[in-house]
C-alpha cells in the first residue's frame, strides 16, 4: 500500500498507485470538514528522510466520499484514513467513508502536527481504546488503528486498540522532530516541529512493529522507511503482514511499488518461501 498522506487526496492519484502495483490504496487522512493545512514550508527533504508538517490538509468527508465511491466502483481496494477532534467526529467520518464503499478504515490517532486533542489520541491508551470501540461498533468494515512512535510503550497502546476492537494495527506514523536554519536562526517549518519519515525512521518503526507483535494477536501493517524489497522483508520478519510506502514514493515515483514487490519475490524464491505469511514474525524465533 501507499502510506496515508502520499498520493491519497483524490481517486485519480490513488488509481495510479494501484495501477503501479500496490495491493490496496490508502487515502490522505480525511476529517469532518475541509482543511487547507499549514502554510509553506510544510516539507523538508533531509536526504536521510523527510520532515513534514502538512497540518491535515484534506477536502473534508463530504467531498472525499464521492472520490471514494468512484474509486471503489472500479474494484480498487481502498483503506480510508480518517481523523476527528471528538469521538463524535471520528464516528461520523468513519461511517460516511464506510458508506462510500471503503474496504477498510484506518483510524489516525497519531498525527504529530496539530493541537493535542486532534493529534495524539494514540498517546493515551484509555482514550484510544474508547474511540476505537465507538468507531468499531459504528462501521461494518475492518478497522486499522495507526499508532504513533512518540510514546513510551507502544505495545501497551497497541493492546488498548486491540481491546477496543481494532482488526489491525498500522505502525507507525511519523516521529516528532525539527530543523533549525542557523542563518535565519529560526525553525524551518512554519509549524516549527514536524514528523520525520523515510530511512531515518525505519529502525524506530521496525522496533515498534517488533514490540507490537509481542503484545497483540491482530495483524500489523508496517510503515516507515520502506523503499526496497529487503526493507519490506525486514518488516515481515519483525511481525508485519503488509507494508505501506510513503517517502520513497516522493523520491522515486510510483515505480517503487513494483520494485518493492519484485524485491520481495526475489528474496522469497532465493530463500525458498512461497507465501509472505511464512515470513511474518520469523525473526522472533
Ligand atoms: O497532515 C499532516 O501533517 C500529517 C498527518 Br495527518 C499525519 O498523520 N502524519 C504526518 O506526518 N503528517
Structural account:
The chain has 285 residues and is α/β, with parallel strands linked by helices. The protein has one domain: TIM Barrel (Alpha-Beta Barrel). It has 10 helices and 13 strands. Strands 1-4-5-6-7-12-13 form a 7-stranded parallel β-sheet. Helix 5 runs parallel beside helix 6. The two termini are 27 Å apart. It binds ligand RRO. Ligand RRO binds next to loops.
Task: Enter the CATH topology name.
Answer: TIM Barrel
The biggest beta sheet, please?
7 strands, parallel
Report strand %.
Answer: 15-25%
Strand order of the largest sheet: 1-4-5-6-7-12-13
Name the ligand types.
Answer: ligand RRO
Helicity level? 25-40%
- What is the overall silhouette? globular
Provide the low-confidence segments as ranges.
none
How many discrete domains?
1
Give the full name of the CATH homologous superfamily.
Aldolase class I
Characteristics:
285 residues, alpha/beta, TIM Barrel, 7-stranded parallel sheet, 4-stranded antiparallel sheet, 13 strands, 16% strand, globular, binds ligand RRO
Task: Sum this structure up briefly.
The protein has 285 residues and is of the alpha/beta class.
Amino acid at each position: 500500500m501507499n502510506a496515508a498522506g502520499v498520493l491519497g487526496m483524490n481517486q485519480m492519484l490513488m488509481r495510479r498507485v494501484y495501477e503501479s502495483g500496490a495491493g490496496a490504496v490508502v487515502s490522505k487522512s480525511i476529517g469532518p470538514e475541509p482543511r487547507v493545512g499549514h502554510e509553506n514550508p510544510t516539507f523538508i527533504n533531509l536526504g536521510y528522510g523527510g520532515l513534514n508538517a502538512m497540518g491535515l490538509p484534506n477536502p473534508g468527508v463530504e467531498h472525499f466520499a464521492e472520490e471514494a465511491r468512484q474509486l471503489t466502483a472500479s474494484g480498487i481496494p481502498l483503506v480510508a484514513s480518517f481523523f476527528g477532534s471528538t469521538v463524535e467526529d471520528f464516528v461520523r467520518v468513519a461511517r460516511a467513508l464506510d458508506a462510500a464503499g471503503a474496504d477498510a478504515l484506518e483510524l489516525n490517532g497519531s498525527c504529530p502536527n496539530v493541537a493535542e486533542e486532534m493529534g495524539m489520541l494514540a498517546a493515551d491508551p484509555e482514550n484510544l481504546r474508547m474511540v476505537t470501540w465507538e468507531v468499531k461498533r459504528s462501521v461494518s468494515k475492518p478497522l486499522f488503528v495507526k499508532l504513533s512512535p512518540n510514546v513510551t510503550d507502544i505495545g501497551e497502546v497497541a493492546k488498548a486498540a486491540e481491546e477496543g476492537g481494532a482488526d489491525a494495527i498500522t505502525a507507525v506514523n511519523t516521529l516528532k522532530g525539527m530543523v533549525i536554519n542557523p542563518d535565519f536562526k529560526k525553525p524551518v517549518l512554519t509549524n516549527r516541529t514536524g514528523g520525520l519519515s523515510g530511512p531515518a525512521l525505519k529502525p524506530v518503526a521496525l522496533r515498534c512493529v517488533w514490540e507490537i507483535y509481542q503484545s497483540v494477536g491482530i495483524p500489523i501493517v508496517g510503515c516507515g522507511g520502506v523503499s526496497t524489497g529487503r526493507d519490506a522483508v525486514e518488516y515481515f520478519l519483525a511481525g508485519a503482514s503488509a507494508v505501506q510506502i510513503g517517502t520513497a514514493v516522493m523520491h522515486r515515483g510510483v515505480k517503487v511499488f513494483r520494485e518493492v514487490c519484485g524485491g520481495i519475490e526475489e528474496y522469497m524464491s532465493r530463500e525458498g518461501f512461497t507465501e509472505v505469511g511464512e515470513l511474518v514474525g520469523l525473526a522472533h524465533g
